[in-house]
Structures are given as C-alpha cells and as structure tokens.
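Researcher: Re-running this chain for the archive, since the previous output was lost when a drive failed. Same request as before.
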Amino acid sequence: MIDKLKDLATDLGVKWLQDYLGLEEKLENLETRINLVKYRAIDMVTLTKLQSGKKRKKEVEEWLKKVERKKIEFRDLRAQVQQARFYSRIQLVRRVETMMGEVEDLVQQGAFSGGLFLDVYDTKGVPLLATTWKGQAFEQNLREIWECVMDDEIFSIGIYGMGGVGKTTLATHVHNNLLKEAKFSGHVCWITVSQEANIHKLQKDIAKFLPVDLSCEDNDRKRAAQLFQALKRRRNFVLILDDVWTHFDLENVGIPLRVDGSKLIITSRSLDVCCAMGCQKEVKVKPLCYQEAWTLFLEKLGCCRPQPPDIEEIAKSMVKNCAGLPLGIITVAGSMKGTDDIHEWRDALEELEDPVARQDCEVFKILHYSYSRLRDQRLKDCFLYCSLYPEDCEIPRDELIASYIRERLVDKRRTRQAEFDQGHALLNKLENACLLEGVVKIKEDDTEAKYVKMHDLMRDMALKITKTKPKYLVKAGIWLRDIPDKSEWKEDLDKVSLRFNVVSSIPLGISPNCPKLSTLSLWGNELTSMPCSFFAHFGALQVLDLSCNRSLEELPNCISELERLTALLLFSCRDLRFVPSLEKLKALRELDLSDTKISDVPEGLEGLVNLKCLNMVQTNLEMISEGIISKLSCLQSLGIPRQVSVQVEELESLKQLEEFIGGFPEANSFSRFVRSRQRFNRPSFYVIQVGSGLLKGLSGHFQQMASKRVVFSFTNVNPGGEKRANILPDDIQELEICACQGLGSCLNDTFAEFNTQTRGLTHCLIEGSSEIRSLLKLSSSEDQFVIKGQNSACAPLQNLKHLRLICLSNFNGLFEWDSVANAIPPPSTFSCLRSLFIDRCGKLKKLFTPRLLQSVQSLEVLKVWGCNELEEIVSNDEEGYFSFTSSNKDSCSRATISCLPNLKKLAVLGNPKLRNICKGLLICNSIERIEVISCRNLGSLPPFLPSINGQPSAPPALKVIQISLLGWESLKWDNPYMKKILQPFVRYGEF
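Model: Regenerated structure tokens:
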C-alpha cells in the first residue's frame, strides 16, 4: 500500500511538473489560435466596409462579439500566468486548456459556409451614367476612396489630377456605390461646379437637392444659414462637388463638416484647391499605364487590333502620345474609327506629335487634334457654335439644329425636313468623333428626348479657338448682372453669347463698335428695355435672340433699321406688347413672337416675302387680316394662336408649308383642312386644335419636324349630327378628345375610315365624355375576315403605344361587337400598346378576357383608377383557353393562365368593387411594382406561375408591393406559402 501511494505521488508530481514546465508552450499555442480568429474578425470588418449595399448576418455579429470577449479574457489570463507562482501556475493550466477548447469552437464557427452578408439594397436615388470600362489603376483608386468614405475619422476627400484623366468618372462610380450604402440613407448629392461658379449658384443647386426654398432670400449669409441647418438635419449626407476650379469657404455656402458622419468629396485639377478646402485625404488620379491605355484605345476603336497589321505600330505610337489620358485616348480612337488608309494614320500621328508648351496644353493639343481632323468646315463651325451655350448645358438636338439652319451652317435644301436631316447627320458625326456627348432622356410619355453636351475640356478648347477666328465673346450662364465692358466688344467679333444671365438693363449711351457682328444672343436674361444706341454699330447683325426676357415690354424702334437681320427671336418675352415696323427687314427668314402679349400683327409683316418660319402661338392676337398669310409664299413653318382662324384656302396657297400649328373653331373647318391636305400632301407636320380651351404642350421652338397631333376640345365633333362625317389625317400619330359633344358610341362611329386612317396612331387620350361606350366597334364579318389572316395589316390601332381613357361615364369595354360576344380582336390590334391608363370610367366591369389579353402582350404599365363598377381586371369567361395541370393536389387541377410578359407596373386605385385582378395563374416575370390602394373588396393577388418544383414563386424583377396594412391582411391565399414569399416586397401605406 505504501509503495502504491509512493507511485501515485510520484505520478502526480511528474504531472504537476509537466504542467508547470509546459504552461508557456500551451499559452503560446492558445495565443496562436486567438490570433487566427482575431485576424479572421479583422478581415470580416474590412470586407464589410468594401461591400456596398450589404450588411453582416446576425450570427456573424454575435461571433465577432465572442471574439472580442475572448481576446479580453486571454489578455487577463496571460497577465495572471506571468505573475503566478508554482501552485497558481498549475491551476492556470486547466484554464488555458479550457480556453483552447473554446477558441477551437470559435475557429470552427467562423467558417460561415452560408456567407457573411445579407443584401440590403434600397431605392435611394438615380445612378449616374458611367463608363463600364475599368482598369487596374481605376479599381485601386476606387478602393482607396471607398475606404476613406467608410472611415468615420475622415470627413473630406479630394480627387485631383490633370484634365481628362478620369476624375469625374471615378467620382461617378463612388456616387453610384453610395446609393446602395445603407449608412448614408440615400442622402447623396451631386453638384457640378462650373468654372465661373459663384456662391449664389452653388447654394441654389444644393437647395434644389434638399429641397429648400431660397427664392425669397437674396442675402448669401442668410441663405447659408438655412442650408447649414437643412444639411445638418439630414445627417450622414455625402456632398460631391465635381470640377471645382477655385477654393471657397464652405461655411459661406452653408456646407457643414464633421457633423453626424457627413462627407464632402470634391474633384479638381489642382491639389492646391483640395488643400485649401480642407480635404483630409487627397487621392491623385494618374494617367493610365500603357497596357490599359492600349486596351481602352482598341475598345473605342471597335476592333481587336487595327487593320491592316502594318497600322498597329502607328496606332501604338498614337496611344503613347495620348500620355495615358482616357479622354484623349477616346477622342483619338473615335476620330480614327473606320480608317484603314495607312497614309491617314501616318498623317494623324504627325499632327499628334507636334510639341506642346504649357501643362494643360497637352490636353488641349489632344482635343484640338480631333477638331483639326474634321475635314468639313461645316462640322468645325457646328462644333464651335455649341460653345455659345453655358458650361454643362444639355442642348436639345432639335433646338440646336434649328440654330444651325438659321446660321446657315447646313446646306440649303429643297425642304426644311431635308435640312433637319442634314443637321442630325452633322451632329451624329460630331458625336461619333467624341467631340460632343449624346444624352437621351425618357419623358413622361415614354418618348425619347435627345440632347448633346460639350465636355468642359472640349468647351475650353472651343473657347480658346474662338479667341482668334471666328471670334466669339461668350459669357453664358455665369450670373452676369451687367453687359461686358466696352473694351471686350472687339471690332472683329463674329458672335456674342450672353445667354442665361441676369442682365436687367443696358446703360444709355453704350454703343459697341462691332461692324462684323452676325449673331447676338441675350436669351434668358431679365432685360426690361434696350436703348437704340446699343444697336447703332451692328450693321451686319443677322441673328438677334432676345427670347425669355420676360420683363421686356417693347423693342426699340432702331430694330427696324437692321436690314440684314435674318432671324428675330422673341419667344417667351411674356410682357412684350410692341414690335416696331418690320417693313425694311426684307431679309428676315424667321420671326418668333410666341408666348408674348403681342395683340396686333406687326406692321410690314405682309412684305416679308423671304420669311420661312413664323411663330405667333400663345399670343394675344385676335385676328390676322385676310391675305396676309397667303403673301408669305416662302413659309415652311407656321404657328398661329388657337383663337385666330385662318382660311383653308390661304394655307393651300403656301406651297412650301411643311409644319403648321394652329386651330380651327369647329370641326367642319378642320375637315376641309384635312381634305385639302390629302390633295396637296402638305403640311407634313402639324399640331392642330379643334374647338376652344388651352392647348397643352405648345412650345415656341416648335420647328422640330416631328409632331402629327390633333386635339378636339370643348367642341361638337359632328355639328351636323351625321355619323362619321369627320375624317382624320391618314398619318396622325397623336389624338386627344377632351370634353366634346357629338361623339358616337365608339371612335369608328365618330370618324370616317377610323380603322384605316389611324394605323400610325401612337398616342390616344379620350377624356370627359358620356357618349363613348367603347374604343372600337367591330363586326363579326370583320372578325371572320381577319381571323383567316388574309390582311392583318388592316388591323386598327396596331401602332398605338399609349392609351388614356378618363372620365368616360358610360364606357364599358375596349371593344364592342355587333353580334359575336368576346370575339378575338383583329390580329396586331394593340400589339404595340405599352401603357394603358383608365380613370373614372363608371360602367366598366371587366377590362380583359383571356383572349383579349393576347392582344396586349407588349403592355408595360397598367393603371386603373376610380372605376366604381370594376369587378375584375382579367375575367375568367373563357374556361379552357389555356390550361395548366398542377402537381399540387391541394390546388385545382386546371386553371386559366394569363400572360403579360412585359408588364412592369400594375396599379389599381380606388376601385371599391374590384374582387380579382386575375383568377388564374399569371405569367408576369417583368413586374417590378404593384400598387393596390383603396380597393376594399379585393380578395387576392393573382397566383404567379409555379416554379419547376411546383411551388409558387415571386416574379424575378419584383421590387415593391404598395398596399395598406388592412388590405394586405385581408387578402386570401390559395397557398399560404405565397404570402410568405411576397411579404418582403410589401410597403404599407395609402399614397
């Protein structure tokens, strides 16, 4: 027994000794494992900062907290080990072993095979357009800036570099990433700061973003105080100031820094500007390395390598001469696109290798190179003309082309339409050469509005060119209060642009000596009067644009002496009441008096035999004496106020008329006009109002060679009471009927040959009628004819894109059939329909049958508002039209399938009897937004097409379901799982 006790004591002593001696090694092993989880945690935190639009999962957050606690416990344990004596160290071994096990568990838990993050994307703003090309240096700069933005200790960041190096592009990507970042709650403001910006304009731009109304406050200090408080309340905002040329005091503007996580990002060509504005971090954007520059050049050239192969070495030399500037590379590549003649390549390289002097001259030389490569002088003149507009201005293409025509920058053609076509061709060439940037915006009616824009460096280059020949004086959009000093009005000036300023008066006695001046634009100022002395030495003046001087009441009499004047533009001079005699202005080709208070025809108008464009829309004219219009035999574009009647015979005498805006007091006069137009095939373009009421959408700059629109308002469409007495132009594109009488029960009962005359119709609005019961009435014979497919090209409304039906108290359906109920519409009818808006059509009960739904497969937006009797959007009257057998035995075995493959938005609002949107399954994979508001009897949302495994699924593009909480909870579900699927998309509220 004593021996056994001795052995036990010996073993115990040996173990204690081993523990005592091995404690340090075990502690080192534990520290190694602690560091492993610590570094893993650091990586997770860093990755989170780089992942915009995402947040860590809760399990990840808990794991990070455990790691932090374990790090603290380890530090305490290590301190105890260092201070412990023999017996204490032996006891600490057990704690080290226990903690090692806990840390091993953390290591295993930290794998997170299911990922670290959840997507938290919200709609917080509109991303800016940005190039998709990214190089290694670009990505590195983007990461560096993003880390600064996510760093709570950095409030201001400067991005600087030479012109054309890509600062704005880089900032644009930062902006777009910030829109997805939950931290900033969508408070991301982009302001482009023009070269000659001032505090007042900058305050105005920021106020527009917030929005804050500063219109009643002129004092900059008080404006700054209001902005400061508004931005401070926002919290976590990011203000991006692009293209800052000179530093300014942020407090004078009203921009707070170091407030609740807010950030300031500026781009500038100068490091000094960044430092003077207090940027804590400056990021320099360097030119591209050669390989990235070559890749970008080939991409913009549109090929893998230049052809033939012997051109490649020349192309590489050209890339080297671009010094890594993306703007220069894009410009040069654009100018050489499609060129395969080696002589042109060698000549281009020779021009590009000319020596440069100043720092920024490298950029200007590259940009000037592209300009000098334009072989057509007209293209050069058209490019330089764009510099007359303010910096960063988006110039409407049609407005610019009209300017080109009046400036004779396009060749004279037989028709004005042909001149517009040539203008578009010239602008396309300038865009393709990367001298101008094309901009496309989508308007509310889903049509495109096209603009061109000059990059600020391109504009700088153009202004540099126009300091010599042709010689321009340009001070546009800089809040100029006084006209330039007399010293700036040089004798050899060709054009002067003082557009978009706040000049209110021209001093008496000032008389610039500019005998060669051909164009003077004071568009968009605040002039109230003009002295005759100002025009005394403008004998060569051809284009005088005083448009949008809304306080200008009269023109000086000396305007009558400008005998070489070819264009006098007074659009939207809303207080203008008097224009002096035009008798001597025989050269005048364009006169725009639209949107003024002119009440009398200007004296001498009838003698302007060279006049091509006359616009008197929205004036106070009550009549135009008979015979005046017919004497203007060269007119190509004519606009007269709606209240003035013009005899159809006078319009017939204008053999060159291509565009007409005007009105007819009643339908019979309009019918005579249409029949006359059918005989003489003119005018080609028109906006015509029949009846009274204000005609919407008219513009002073209407010469766009585009509109074919007829509006009937507050009139009797058929005053004689005879059906189908009226006809429409056979090329009509837009038809509006508002608050009219004399309509039939449908449109083809109202207008003769409606089905064939309106095949080109794209927009249709019918509003305020108790007579219209349906859009079209079709007979069974027509139905049988088209079902056989003999002539689908005759289908009515086959090009209609947008249809609005408003306040039609007896409207009960899109189609009415004289014998066969629910027949199939003619093929191609509604095949292009993209938006359908039905509002307050009191007797409508069912909108579509499954068969009718097949005609609207292009539909993208469907809105049905305030239809008190509406019960179903898609009725189920045609059982078996399509069938689907479900694998789910709990559901019905057969169900109607409705298909709207392109529908993006569905809105049903204020339809109290609406029970169903669609009873069967709905294939609607493009749907993005569903709005259900004040439809208290709606029983369910349509079930969507099951997925492959037989379970229902949400449409892949769905973003939002807007509905009240009560409405959502009252919905019934055939499959309860469907509610769970759709719940994340629900946004409660009645808006």
